[in-house]
Amino acid sequence: MGKLINRIAVLAATATVVMEVGLVPAARADTAPELACGSTQPGPCSQTAHFTDVNEVDSPPESPLPASCPSFLATDFVTVVGTGNGIEHVTVNKAQNFWFTSTFTGQVTITAYPPSSITATDDTCTVTGPPDPNVPAFTGKLTEWFGASGNRQSAVFHDTFHFSGTSATGESFTIHDVDHASYTPGLDQNGPPHTGFTKIHC
């Protein structure tokens, strides 16, 4: 979904800072604590944290969607709100090379919002209007994983997102998204990745 593409862009920009001053991307979920390792504590360090909730606003994907996906995915923003089990881990070595992973699985509700109901500022989207009246909310199981690593020569970002749920009227919706981006040599947040792809299945 769009959030996965957005995560790559946001973390690509963050990774530039990581390699310049030793910072590490912050947690991806509201209840995940900001990790000190790589942010207020320079490497070498290693830290793990657990979280229970997700509350995200995701934009439509930039990549073309397969015909099997519902049309609202191409235009609407979605909120992903739910509770489950999450874990994040970061390691920064003496050379300030970093490795970061985040995994979550749990029950969530996905609600679609038209662009007119969203206010976007920088890398943040906020819901300011009603949901799309033509799209039901879907509740079901979400499993997502994100990983990033970087050094002065290269950076890699990849993630997976799998959701399967139903609406209150029994309509089903399933999506599986895999994203990858790698930057070699180095990382230019203003340029495209050396290698990148997005694979979406509905």
List keywords for this structure.
12% helix; 9 strands; seven-stranded antiparallel beta sheet; 2 helices; mainly beta; disordered N terminus; 202 residues
Topology:
Blueprint: H1 2-21, E1 45-58, H2 72-75, E2 77-92, E3 98-113, E4 118-121, E5 124-127, E6 138-150, E7 155-166, E8 172-183, E9 195-201
Antiparallel strand pairs: 1-2, 2-3, 3-6, 4-5, 6-7, 7-8, 8-9
Q: Given the structure, what is the number of helices?
A: 2
Total domain count = 1
Q: Helix fraction?
A: 10-25%
Roughly what is the average pLDDT, rounded to an integer?
A: 81
Note the beta-strand portion: over 45%
Class inferred from helices and paired strands? mainly beta
Quick one: how many beta strands?
Answer: 9
Spans with pLDDT under 50 lasting ≥5 residues? 1-29
Return the string of H and E elements.
HEHEEEEEEEE
Largest sheet: 7 strands, antiparallel
The N- and C-terminal alpha carbons lie at a distance of 11 Å
Coarse shape: globular
- Give the strand line-up of the largest sheet: 1-2-3-6-7-8-9
Computed CA radius of gyration, to the nearest angstrom? 17 Å
Can you walk through the features of this model?
With 202 residues, this protein is mainly β. It has one domain (2-201). The protein is 12% helix and 49% strand. The protein has two helices and nine strands, in the order H-E-H-E-E-E-E-E-E-E-E. The strands form two sheets. The protein has a seven-stranded antiparallel β-sheet. A two-stranded antiparallel sheet has the order 4-5. Strand 6 (138-150) and strand 7 (155-166) form a beta hairpin. The relative contact order is 0.20. Mean pLDDT is 81; it is low at 1-29.
